[in-house]
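Suppose you are handed a protein chain with no further information: no name, no annotation, nothing but its sequence. What can you learn? This example shows the usual starting point.
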Amino acid sequence: MITSYEIFVPVIMGSGSSMRTGMKVREMGCLKTLVIYDKGMKDTGIADRILDSLHEAGLETVIFDGVVPDPPDTMVEAAAEEARKAGVDSIVAVGGGSAIDTAKGVNVLINNPPPLSNYCGGVQNGLKPGLKMVFIPTTSGTGSEVTNMCVISLVAQKKKDSVVSPVCLADLAIVDPDLTLGLPPKMTAATGVDAFAHAVESLTGGQANPMADALAREAIRMIVKWLPIAIEDGKNLEAREHMILASTFAGMAFTNALVHMGHSIGHTFGALFHLPHGIACSLALPEVICYTAKTEAHKVREICDCMGVEVSADADNMAVGEIAREAIRGFLKKAGMPNMKALDIPKEPLGDIAKAVTQDIGYAIIPYRISASKVHELLLHAYDA
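A reasonable first move is to predict its three-dimensional structure. Written in structure tokens, the prediction is:
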């Protein structure tokens, strides 16, 4: 078997590491930095801590604090225009996936003409380089700080899509668990489940490789053990350290191995119903992993093992899938993830939604091809499970 994998982004990790932000940006030779975050980062005081670090290092800052969830292309394009006018030479993003994805989109447009939608679909290797970028996550879920893609909402098309390019890669990720202390339980749960989805999908997808597998397995072990503790006690630093490490591991795994149908479903439901990304990806995840067992039973067994669930040696592929489905469903319920029925998602349009799922970019690398009608069946099975 011939495989390939890469380690894309240098990482500084540990309690208090975010206080080195200014020093690290200055070491890159930068003088004027665009700092991207949402208004909640200002309210928590995190944004000011990062700004103070930058100012203490002698850097001039320009602030964009208009980040919103599921960043729309129109917002990203406006932020890029502000960055160009200000003449910044670097970007620091502070926050969850939305802030980091906004930064990536801005970087794409710094030296490449809008609209951002021009660069969706397939890997964009021909883009002009952008600026130096540093990403500082404040949630433990997206792993976006170490990935080469940004997920955006295309307003006119009413869907989510991705830009995949080296221009989306950070020059440095600063992973500080202190910034996740006190994250509300529901956000802790949703982001943690997002990381879990990254891990189990990258482990079972068509682009899996040994390095990604190892990272994914360890991420699953950590998330299953530490996410319930982080939800219960938001100030447990040990739990937060393990969760942010698991999120980064899962991000590294899916950057190399990619995700598949669970995220295709998540992107589609997220765009239609404006759900938090982790919740959207969890809606049919147990069914997705059960489906993969037909061809990837050995990987699904590994998921069960990482979750501490026993599978007998003589279990056939269908049995392995069913055991994994129930284990994952139980884990998601324990984390408080709602099903479609609880979210008041109507059942009637699921057939059309299934067709949209098959048009998502991630659907191209599902473990084995199934029709939209089979995806519809899968969604119906998950609807009130």
